[in-house]
Design goal:
With about 375 residues, this protein is an alpha/beta fold. It has two domains: about 220 residues, Spore Coat Polysaccharide Biosynthesis Protein SpsA, Chain A; about 120 residues. The chain is about 55% helix and about 10% strand. It has 13 helices and seven strands. A seven-stranded mixed β-sheet has the order 3-2-1-4-6-5-7, with helices on both faces. Strand 1, helix 2 and strand 2 form a beta-alpha-beta unit. Helix 10 packs antiparallel against helix 11 and helix 12 runs antiparallel to helix 13. InterPro entries: DPM1-like, Glyco_trans_2-like, GtrA_DPMS_TM, Nucleotide-diphossugar_trans. It is found in: Membrane. Keywords: Glycosyltransferase, Membrane, Transferase, Transmembrane, Transmembrane helix. This is Dolichol monophosphate mannose synthase.
Length: about 375
């Protein structure tokens, strides 16, 4: 790669490229080389924000950074999540413009000069789109991933205050001062930071789209799965309720609903097998608590996931917390029923359920997934 003169390297970067990554060691050097080619006339830097990848991604970036001052790494230990990684990358930049690209080489870096030109012309945010003329989504492998992406796009377009053809894109450039002004409104969770930003920026923000071809992945594994889509859905609800129902609480409540279904199903199976009501209810409750814990560990607290011995200690504490939540549920339900009269079982039950969910969520967030 060709570096600028020593005097040029002392000048501040006009563009920072934020690359959130996890297990992308094999893609680091090719990405730096590609950026060097297409941004030869720009003052730029690339900031890899690595969630402590076990494949040595941070070490690979550090090796390159020893000889290229345009390359930096932010290694996050004990923190996970694409959106929060992007936010930390933004906060470490002082450039006028900041771009976000995936670390898997699927985003076409040759589009960056065109995106910068749009910003220079007055746009405040420029989104790389796979769904405008000249764009292509062929690099998204498999029918299932196409279905997930298309479902997310249609859901987002219903509620977006700004029309976008590709709100699921992870490739965009924006003014850093716009990001700084928008930061307090961001949820900072999930994998779709663009949607979070577009739903948080002022309505008068000038957003344009430019086409790009989404390339096939060369190394590493895709992070797009059903968990990403569920986190995407809860983040939409968070934005629609203006933060009154935080993303994590919505996910926790959704998992709780799944637990209710599991409880009833297992209880019915147990009764059919000949057990009495109390035995069936006990088994159904136990299976539901285990299901809720595993789903919360995988979905709600994806960035704080417990593993190994810590996971089983967490499960024991979660079971204890849920047991207390059951007593809180029943106690509140009885109080409400006493005040409203015995003709209002539905309202009393709902009030108890809400208190139970709030209790379980508050204690779980404080003691288990801290």
């Amino acid at each position: 790669m060709t570096l600028r003169s020593e005097e040029d390297l002392l000048l501040p970067a006009r563009l920072s490229i934020i690359v959130p990554c996890y297990n992308e060691a094999e893609n680091v050097a090719p990405m730096v080389a590609a950026l060097s080619r297409v941004l030869a006339e720009e003052y730029w830097e690339v900031i890899f924000v690595d969630d402590n990848s076990p494949d040595g991604t941070s070490a690979r970036v550090s090796d390159i950074a020893k000889n290229d001052p345009r390359v930096r790494v932010v290694r996050r230990v004990g923190r996970r999540g694409l959106s929060s990684a992007v936010i930390e990358g933004f906060l470490s930049s002082s450039a006028t413009y900041v771009a976000v690209m995936d670390g898997d080489l699927q985003h076409d870096e040759s589009v960056l000069p065109k995106m910068l030109a749009a910003l220079d012309a007055g746009s405040q945010m420029v989104v790389g789109s796979r769904h405008v003329e000249g764009g292509d989504n062929a690099g998204l492998a498999g029918h299932w991933r196409h279905l997930l992406s298309d479902t997310g796009i249609r859901a987002a377009q219903v509620v977006l205050p700004h029309p976008l053809t590709d709100p699921m894109s992870g490739f965009f450039v924006m003014r850093r001062d716009l990001f700084t002004a928008t930061l307090p409104k961001l949820s900072g969770t999930g994998f779709k930071i663009l949607l979070d930003l577009v739903m948080s920026v002022p309505k008068e923000t000038r957003i344009t789209e430019v086409p790009f071809v989404f390339r096939p992945r060369v190394a590493g594994e895709s992070k797009l799965d059903v968990v990403v889509l569920l986190q995407f859905a809860t983040m939409l609800l968070d934005k629609l309720t203006h933060g009154w129902l935080p993303t994590r609480f919505l996910a926790f409540a959704l998992v709780g609903l799944v637990g209710v279904i599991v409880n009833v199903a297992v209880m019915q199976l147990a009764r059919v097998s000949g057990m009495d009501f109390s035995q069936s209810q006990l088994i159904g409750t136990a299976v539901a608590i285990l299901t809720n814990f595993l789903l919360n560990n995988r979905l709600t607290y994806h960035d704080r996931r417990l593993k190994g011995a810590r996971m089983w200690r967490g499960f024991a504490l979660f079971a204890a917390v849920c047991s207390v939540g059951v007593f809180a549920n029943i106690g509140v339900a009885r109080m409400v029923l006493h005040d409203l009269g015995h003709g209002h079982w539905d309202r009393a039950s709902a009030a108890g359920a809400v208190i139970g969910v709030v209790w379980n969520y508050a204690v779980s967030s404080t003691l288990i997934w801290r």
